[in-house]
């Protein structure tokens, strides 16, 4: 990352100095040096959903409540697409197709297991793994 007096500067875009001199880009190191543009390390990354800043996690209890609420909302949204079939079954005894029953069961099972993992987390790092589990390895044939 490049900065001028602490302000980030893009070296790929046109740049106009305070004196009105315009440069089409700042890719030339000698031009950057003459203007006082310096390269600095990129700021450390942190996931703003879980941290206030680098090494400053948000309140775990509140995070867990928020993520359980979100997983329930996602499951509810997915289930709502076929709720009418369940209502139709209750009101008129018209069967829900087996593939729909299986899909709804999978949604409920997934939400339940995610909620249990979220509630079991004792650190923010464990919570992140519960919310975004690493992908399963691909089996070779």
Please explain how this structure is put together.
This protein has 141 residues and is of the alpha+beta class. The chain folds into 2 domains: 38 residues, no CATH class; 81 residues. Helices cover 49% and strands 12% of the residues. It contains 5 helices and 7 strands. It has a 3-stranded antiparallel beta sheet with strand order 2-1-5, with helices on one face. The longest helix is centred in the last third of the chain and has 23 residues. The chain starts with a strand and ends in a 10-residue tail after the last helix.
Quick summary:
This protein has 141 residues and is an alpha+beta fold. 49% of the residues lie in helices and 12% in strands. The protein is built from five helices and seven strands; from the N terminus they run ββββαβββαααα.
As residue ranges, the low-confidence spans are: none
Give the overall form: elongated
**Number of separate helices:** 5
The gyration radius over C-alpha positions equals 26 Å
